[in-house]
Design brief:
741 residues, alpha+beta, seven-stranded mixed β-sheet, seven-stranded antiparallel β-sheet, 25 helices, 29 strands, 46% helix
């Protein structure tokens, strides 16, 4: 996630067209703007400080609500317009002869009912419809015919036709149709705005995680400054219970850090010198100093926010199709409406009012609100659902593509396994304890940075280690040193041979462990073998359950690794993976994905390292484990912040749920228009569709689509309680039987 967020402003556009509804076209940098000296200044301490940066623009058919209005204010504005329209529409309906029936409320003869209905309908239409009027004007200036144009065509045609009937030619009036149509259009947009506000509330909640102030060391003194003014390489002091302001690396002290706010992991992580810390996480026990490495738009928190916003501002392929259909529907409605008028007035010789009534009905029935609401609400809700559980979709294309995956290719190290070797077994010669063998090995390797050495030292934690002398490391073989004036050797069998240490006493055990793909480290003292240490990578606790659930979803799982086949097949057996591609070089991983794609399969790739980047890019959907490298994350379409294999399952379940809602909504919207147009045009004459009934039908379809999308909020996937066996710790062989250095 190397691209920086724009630090200077947040732009929030509310469009007339739901398909263009980015709730936050935001460039966020922790509520800060750049000052002339290059330092970032906070906008203030209010919860809505970020919104004070917002301004509203009219762009590509957007509604201008007013400068400085944030997403909550836009939702309130749409709600207020809906309530005002509803307030005036109810008496209009009561006073109007719906479908030729007697009005429910009859005014005294001395009161001009038509004039009263005109006043009420004007209140229901003129103010509430204004944002759509502005959007339509801007669209027409660009030569476009978007949904705002058709809304105005539908509402204004019905309103003006009724005004003519009231004041000029004494014809039928359809105030109730125009008013009711606008009420339900506003309701649909308000429901969409509420869904989007709910989605962006998750982002605003992330913004609030970062502490407003940070304690830094300047000129040897502790100074408390706004977090926005922290610069790279500043030395920051964090005390117990304090939040970490920005990303960095510990230089002094140790503690346990609760990273659950960003990763979802409930267990605090031990941190010490050299370990990275992430902004907005909570320091629990100790105090430490760390050096800032990423600030502002480059922090992990800011990048998560950027990914969520980017996904919500993008369009799924289904939405692009709906957009094009809606644009064609505008011209189709105009053409069919005019043809309807011409055919009934000049060809069949019907009255002017009859022909005009059918034309108005066509315009009303054609409003494509349901069509263009079909997908953006599902996208907004699905991306918000994903963000809450640590699944970050970069765009709506990835959201839709993930639902169609048939194969998931998973990297072994760092994805299915933790990517960190641990000691899984210690075998000793008679008369020697496990503790003694670990103490000897850890004493020799205490200053080594080799991964296998680190595994031994971690296992020996709590054991008192003796000082060593004359330490010598032999790359690729092992290391030796003097412990209590006796030579201690730690390494592989070849190293033992160079030290004249016989290993036959434990040959059978070593062969057994190596046959399982484990790395075996020999430990000798004073020329005699004392024991062997078996080391393996740790399989992630949820990996087996994730594989089983993917297969239950009908998805084939392939393990792709550069490790030897013996190691790879052992892990595959433990996890239940049937297809293994082993000893695959980084450059060959992308070709392996292409081969699967040539077989007609939709391929998702899950990885975490630089070597996975080509395969992540080649895949139909690339899923990067959050603990992975920036290169892998940049190459992926989805980021899994918790490094949990089960999140691959959740990604697909959310995507399938969202795609199902898109298809349901698009089917209903399309079916509605296919049936409605002939009815409105009088094809089934003498069965006719009156304008008020047409408005009700159109409004009902809009509400149905909106409510159906909102039901996605209830989506829980198949997150049943994990099996106990899936949570039991498992181990996997380390990458290769390399030696300690």
């Amino acid at each position: 996630m190397s691209d920086a967020l724009r630090p200077t402003q947040a732009i929030i556009n509310y469009p007339v067209q739901p398909e263009l509804t980015p709730p936050m076209k935001a460039a966020f940098s922790c509520a800060q703007v750049a000052s002339p000296n290059g330092r970032r200044k906070p906008l203030g301490n209010s919860p809505l400080a970020h919104d004070s940066m917002a301004h509203i623009g009219v762009e590509h058919g957007t509604i201008q609500h007013g400068a400085g209005m944030h997403s909550h204010a836009m939702a309130r504005d749409m709600r207020n317009r809906f309530l005002i329209a509803l307030l005036f529409t109810v008496p209009v309906l009561l006073l109007s002869p719906m479908a030729g029936l007697r009005p429910l409320v009859v005014l005294p003869p001395s009161v001009n009912t038509n004039l009263v209905v005109f006043v009420l309908a004007s209140g229901a239409i003129l103010y509430p419809v204004w944002p759509f009027a502005v959007g339509a004007i801007h669209a027409l200036r660009r030569g476009a015919a978007d949904m705002s144009v058709l809304i105005m065509l539908s509402v204004v045609t019905g309103y003006l036709f009724s005004v003519g009937g009231t004041f000029f030619y004494g014809g039928p009036e359809f105030y109730e149709a125009a008013s009711m149509l606008l009420v339900f259009v506003l309701l649909g947009h308000w429901l969409e705005m509420r869904a989007r506000v709910g989605a962006t509330d998750a982002i605003r909640g992330l913004v609030d995680l970062a502490p407003p102030m940070a304690t830094v060391l300047r000129n040897g003194r502790e100074v408390e400054i706004p977090t926005a003014e922290v610069a790279v390489n500043d030395l920051i002091i964090v005390r117990p219970g304090g939040k970490i302001p920005v990303d960095g690396e510990i230089v002094e002290g140790a503690s346990e850090v609760d990273e659950s706010t960003l990763t979802g992991e409930s267990v605090p992580v031990k941190k010490g010198p050299g370990d990275p810390v992430v902004g907005a996480t909570l320091n629990e026990s100790g105090s430490f100093r760390y050096r800032a490495t990423k600030v502002g738009a480059n922090t992990a928190l800011a990048q998560i926010i950027r990914l969520v916003q980017q996904a919500q501002n993008s369009k799924a392929p289904a939405q692009l199709l709906a957009d094009r259909a809606a644009q064609w529907l505008v011209w189709t409605a105009v053409v069919i409406g005019l043809i309807t008028f011409v055919v009934w007035f000049w060809w069949f010789g019907q009255t002017l009012f009859f022909a005009l009534t059918l034309m108005v009905t066509v315009f009303i029935i054609a409003c494509p609100d349901a069509l263009v609401l079909a997908t953006p609400m599902a996208v907004a809700i699905a991306t918000a659902l994903g963000a809450r559980i640590g699944v970050l979709f970069k765009n709506a294309v990835a959201l839709e593509a993930a639902a169609r995956l048939t194969v998931v290719v998973m990297d072994k190290t760092g994805t299915l396994t933790v990517g960190r070797p641990v000691v899984v077994d210690v075998v000793t010669v008679p008369g020697t304890s496990d503790k003694a063998v670990l103490a000897l090995a850890a004493a020799v390797e205490r200053n080594s940075e080799h991964p296998l050495a680190r595994a031994i030292i971690e296992r020996a934690a709590g054991i008192e280690l003796t000082a060593v002398a004359d330490f010598t490391a032999v790359p690729g073989l092992g290391a030796r040193a003097e412990v209590d004036r006796q030579a201690v050797s730690v390494g592989n069998a070849e190293f033992m041979a160079t030290q004249n240490v016989p290993v036959e006493a434990l040959d059978a055990e070593a062969t057994r462990l190596q046959g399982s793909g484990l790395t075996v480290v020999y430990v000798a003292r004073a020329g005699a073998l004392r024991g062997i240490i078996a080391i393996a990578d740790v399989i992630r606790p949820t990996a087996a359950e994730a594989i089983a659930r993917l297969e239950a979803l009908g998805i084939d799982v392939v393990m792709l690794t550069g490790d030897n086949r013996t190691t790879a097949e052992r892990i595959a057996r433990e996890l239940g993976i049937k297809t293994v591609l082993a000893k695959v070089l980084p450059g060959q991983k992308a070709e392996a994905v292409r081969e699967l794609q040539r077989q007609g399969k939709a391929v998702g790739v899950v990885g975490d390292g630089v070597n996975d980047a080509p395969a992540l890019t080649q895949a139909d959907v690339g899923l990067a484990v959050g603990a992975g490298t920036d290169v892998a994350i940049d190459s992926a379409d989805v980021v899994l912040t918790k490094s949990d294999p089960l999140d691959v399952v959740r990604t697909i379940e959310i995507s399938r749920g969202a795609l199902r809602k898109m298809h349901q909504n698009l089917f209903w919207a399309a079916a509605y228009n296919v049936v409605a147009f002939p009815l409105a045009a009088g094809v089934l004459y003498p069965i006719l569709l009156r304008p008020e009934i047409a408005a009700l039908a159109m409004s009902g379809s809009t509400v149905l689509v909106a409510v159906n999308a909102l039901l996605l909020k209830r989506f829980r996937g198949s997150d049943a309680a994990p099996n106990e066996t899936s949570r039991a710790p498992k181990t996997a062989p380390s990458s290769s039987p390399g030696s300690l250095v």
